[in-house]
Amino acid sequence: MSNGDIFVGEVIGTAILILFGAGVVAAVVLDHSKAKDAGWAVIAFGWGFGVLAGAYTAAPLSGGHLNPAVTVGIAIDTGDWDQVHFYVAGQMAGAFLGAVLCWLVYFAQFQANAEDRSAQPTLGIFSTAPEIRHPVANLLTEIIATVGLVLPILAFGLTEGLGQSGTAILIVAFLVVGIGLSLGGPTGYAINPARDLGPRIAHAVLPIPNKGTSDWSYSWIPVVGPLAGGALSGLIFNVAF
Amino acid sequence: MSNGDIFVGEVIGTAILILFGAGVVAAVVLDHSKAKDAGWAVIAFGWGFGVLAGAYTAAPLSGGHLNPAVTVGIAIDTGDWDQVHFYVAGQMAGAFLGAVLCWLVYFAQFQANAEDRSAQPTLGIFSTAPEIRHPVANLLTEIIATVGLVLPILAFGLTEGLGQSGTAILIVAFLVVGIGLSLGGPTGYAINPARDLGPRIAHAVLPIPNKGTSDWSYSWIPVVGPLAGGALSGLIFNVAF
Amino acid sequence: MSNGDIFVGEVIGTAILILFGAGVVAAVVLDHSKAKDAGWAVIAFGWGFGVLAGAYTAAPLSGGHLNPAVTVGIAIDTGDWDQVHFYVAGQMAGAFLGAVLCWLVYFAQFQANAEDRSAQPTLGIFSTAPEIRHPVANLLTEIIATVGLVLPILAFGLTEGLGQSGTAILIVAFLVVGIGLSLGGPTGYAINPARDLGPRIAHAVLPIPNKGTSDWSYSWIPVVGPLAGGALSGLIFNVAF
Amino acid sequence: MSNGDIFVGEVIGTAILILFGAGVVAAVVLDHSKAKDAGWAVIAFGWGFGVLAGAYTAAPLSGGHLNPAVTVGIAIDTGDWDQVHFYVAGQMAGAFLGAVLCWLVYFAQFQANAEDRSAQPTLGIFSTAPEIRHPVANLLTEIIATVGLVLPILAFGLTEGLGQSGTAILIVAFLVVGIGLSLGGPTGYAINPARDLGPRIAHAVLPIPNKGTSDWSYSWIPVVGPLAGGALSGLIFNVAF
User: Fold this and answer.
1) Phi-psi sector, D38: left (phi>0), alpha (psi -120 to 50), beta
2) What pLDDT, in 10s, does the model give residues B21-40?
3) Which end of chain B has fewer surrounding CB within 10 Å, N or C?
4) Nearest-CA distance from A7 to chain B in Å?
5) In which band, very low, low, confident or very high, does the pLDDT at B158 lie, cut at 50, 70 and 90?
6) Residues of A with CB under 8 A from a CB of D
7) End-to-end CA gap in chain D
8) What are the residue boundaries of the structural domains of chain D, listed by start?
9) Higher per-residue pLDDT: C169 or C193
């Protein structure tokens, strides 16, 4: 795949992923939304189908990684790091773009939120936050949850076949739903550095009234944890398979 | 595919789509229904499985577009507009027919609704309405949500393969569930001009007692927005892929 | 397929379908169940995955119809009625057997139900009942909902391919979930004469304490409606496809 | 497949299964979790997607049984018991490991649970318990529910094809969701001796504060019932198919 196709594919695919993923949180937490208070299962399925939509779109261009942890895991597995920076650059740009699109979709709701209840925090729509702030435990949660994503992807040979198989895209989508349901409780499951950092930057720069803090003190955990989990998955895969 | 097959396939497929889609809203909002108050996730899954049922049925005849936004996106992609009017005519007729079938399935509930609580509005079963009435924001929501539908369909080559692959039908069904969960909060996600306008006409003409307004002042947004989103998807696809 | 394989396959497959389907209603309505009050979506998904389990099991023996309405629709389509009675006999026997298995799985709950709350009705676990008793509307609901099941199955050539394709089994399972969510509100969607009549007979004969009425006055509707819907599907299919 | 690959594959796959499965119960029952009180459907889907994740990962090494009841059912079907002990040893070790990983993911929640509400029992996160303690009925429930898992797997030739087919993995995942929804009400559906016994041992030995009893008096039922159900499935399969 050409560097240009990789970059464009990852931008578009990750933008769609974040549009759906941030979108479902906005749908559940903002007032004046038909999905208000629809619950955690809706959030987990929304993120999973965001992966489906984004990977399905990006597959013919870039293979649809959408996640630096996946890209790093595959690079450790294959030993080929040549195009990693094109992947990660596309993922970061796409995650930022997707957050902007989510803000546009819920524009009237964000405005009403500021008017109805001043200082209602909005960061949770864009980025993750732990239920209990405990850096070691939070990091461990993100590492293990990311292994739960990347190791299955590596094991089934998705390194080669993701772009060609609709069945694999379905499986990865439901895998992501499962991670949300099962392992998302403590930290909100970033499991993807771009998914957390890109929208956090968007939250910081977008003109959302009364948006609250962007919580930069926590921001390193959903970057370091998933990268460590992706690398660990590559190592386990090389040893065990 | 012959013009006749296209028309018949789109009539039957879109009728099934609307029967399921309007049906699930009736199931959730009308009294004396076993799914009363079952929530937004049920509505999103009901519409998604309506796409599955309709596309699965129409696929061998017409390829199963069921949506003028999809038809327009494919026409812009391929440059072939010859059969577009047969598709759109079938979609409009099918959407009207599906709304009538939904009314028949819930006939006793519609009658009881009028008797139990006079002037309970019923339009929400047939057509979409925004939570916050803001034409620019509503239009933007529909455009972006429709790109979230049509761009993935174009990207994965469904232009050619929809009729042949059950896996693609499954993916599109869950894609539609995802759009509902993630992007349906502000406007109820028409993302399909026929899906909104056909049942709105049915609502206007059917003898439903105390049915309330058909809200024609909003009706142009779920037509123009999805058509613009479908066209935009075709343009993005031609540039990026 | 041999007559013996057809009969055995339909007995086993329909028994599994009813075990799961009646089971999920028992899980949601009986006290001392972990799924107590889990809601309508759980019931719709439970029945859908019951179809998946039963069809998956029966497929290599009989093709996995599990439903006289499907068998009749296929017979009208193909003109071949030779083995219909082996299918229907297996479906009826299997439906009865599945209801007995459900009673055994929830044996302690049925006993506790009788002790805790005397005369708590149990028929809803086994068979369908309308929310509003209106024979014409109820019949119409069952006919249309059955067309929503059988016409897609016929249209996609499942007449020939059901036994061979896991993807088709997945699609039919989610199609049944969709019918439950969208069209199950008024009558509880029998859409299958064996699914309703077999468990109703089991309800009548099983020694369930304080079980309540078996409601024979309604029992003809979930037999006649689905058979008419299956036949109508075959006719539509022959005309339109 | 080599004995080493089988052992390693079953360790990794079963560890992932239990990580997801125990994880989803922790997510729903522990305080300070984003999925707190998310309900039974979330638990059933979490376990099903745990099977998807574990089987998907283990498939290329061991075929992904992850369950002694499946291994025994296949051995009775094929008559080949040579590698059964490598399967079961891997499954037991993996189930223990997965329970430890779940404890690490929810470490801060387990600590907070002990501090907030002393003696809050935690066994339900790791192992099953009946709603009504009735050994004969509980055993019967586990036997029948396990037949509902193993017989479909055998019937569709998964004995040979599980490792190769993503569609089969999807079907088995939704089959497990269905068993949870439909047959999990009375006992919490062990349907897998390793799934219950491994995490019960982990619960007994892990330093979880105020963890409550490990309930050894019930522990034989979720071992004996599933093994009997797996064996019965093999026998039914050999007679009927």
Assistant:
1) alpha
2) 999 999 999 999 999 999 99
3) N
4) 11
5) low
6) 39-41, 44, 130-132, 134, 137-138, 140-141, 144-145, 148, 151-152, 155-157, 165, 167-168, 170-171, 174-175, 177-179, 181-186, 188, 236, 240-241
7) 26
8) 3-121+130-235
9) C193
Interface partners of C (3+ CB pairs, < 8 Å)?
A: B, D
CA dist., res. D208 & res. D126, Å (int)? 12
pLDDT tens sequence for chain D (241 residues):
899 999 999 999 999 999 999 999 999 999 999 999 999 999 999 999 999 999 989 988 998 999 999 999 999 999 999 999 999 999 999 999 999 999 999 999 999 988 875 556 899 999 999 999 999 999 999 999 999 999 999 987 754 444 457 888 899 999 999 999 999 999 999 999 999 999 999 999 999 988 889 999 999 999 999 999 999 999 999 999 8
Options 2.60.120.1440, 1.20.1560.10, 1.20.1080.10, 3.40.50.620; CATH of C3-121+130-235: 1.20.1080.10
What is residue A216's DSSP assignment?
Answer: T
ipTM associated with this complex: 0.96
Pull the structure tokens for residue B156.
């994965």
Could you report how far apart the first and last alpha carbons of chain B are, in Å? 26
Count CB-CB contacts under 10 A for residue B207.
7
Q: Percentages helix, strand, coil for chain B, rounded to the nearest 5?
A: 75, 0, 25
pLDDT band at B97 (very low <50, low <70, confident <90, very high): very high
User: D175 to chain C: which residues are within 8 Å by CB?
Assistant: 49, 52-53, 56
For residue B184, give the nearest of A27, A41, A59 by CB distance: A27
Mean residue pLDDT across chain B:
93
Query: Sign of the C-alpha dihedral, residues C52, D98, A180, B151?
Result: negative
- Tell me the two tokens of residue A83: 């195009």
Helix (H, G, I), strand (E, B) or coil at B26: helix
Sort out which chain C residues have CB atoms less than 8 A from B97's CB and list them. Answer: none
Closest CA of chain A from B186, distance in Å: 5
For the question of whether the overall pTM of this predicted structure is more than 0.90, the answer is yes
Q: Is residue B104 within 8 Å of residue B22, measured between CB atoms? A: no
Q: Tokens in use for D89?
A: 């040893």
Query: How many whole angstroms separate alpha carbon A20 and alpha carbon A16?
Result: 6
B39: left (phi over 0), alpha (psi -120 to 50) or beta: left
